[in-house]
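tool=predict chain=A
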Amino acid sequence: MMQQTPPMGWNTWNTFGADISDGLIRQAADALVDSGLAEAGYRYVVIDDCWSLPTRDASGRLAPDPQKFPHGMRALADYVHAKGLKFGMYSCAGTLTCAGYPGSYDYEYTDAQTFAEWGVDFLKYDYCFHTPVLEGKYLYRRMGTALANCGREILFSACSWGVEETQTWIKTTGAQMWRSTGDIHDSWEFVKKLTLEQDRLHPYNGVGCFNDMDMLIVGMQGKGNVGIQSGCTAEEYRTHFSLWCLMGSPLMIGCDVRSLSPETWGCRKCIIKCVSGSSLIPV
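tool=predict ok
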């Protein structure tokens, strides 16, 4: 799978954290289409951490929390696909995810097959609770190999936060994008910090495997799971978006797309989609 442009979509984490559900994902998919964002290229709908039961089932497989996802993941994926969008999910290279749910360590092939059967198109793969015995490059190669052999084309989003000099080995894992930074928070200071970190990493970015500067905070306005005080000004959000485009980062919306503020919509008029490493085209 050769990724020609930075992936674009929406992810649950920045706004909702653990407060996710089948209904939320369906509403977000509807909003992406109805707003015109899907037509502009935002096609991945990604469920982040906290979607599963706290233990694997009797066969050793991951299972969705039935209170949050009563219809199961295959039905939800089918709904997202019927909207012309792609369905994404989350797991972790450790024994547990960052929120303490079952990770994929030693279950890489089982989980890749499960995701394929559910119709998953995108996997965000985090790096919490990982073994000290194996370096990250081996853990990500294991999942990359599992995905390559699962029978379905699944975009591999490696989220190792840029540790262990990720840039020097990430392209050996089959990943199409990799987190080159720590987590973002809704503040201008974090935008500046993550941008400056790209100085030495930008040469590794390009077609096939894109440097991921983390999800967008545009429109969060200090609310949600990564909100800090009052968030950013409209000008700071525009600058943040422009920097992510100029750096060729994937564009994963983090705000609540069901209720975008007039200010955020005003920003959208100058928001542009990233169609190649540094090309900017008006929406």
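The longest strand covers residues 86-92. Residues 269-283 have pLDDT under 50 and may be disordered.
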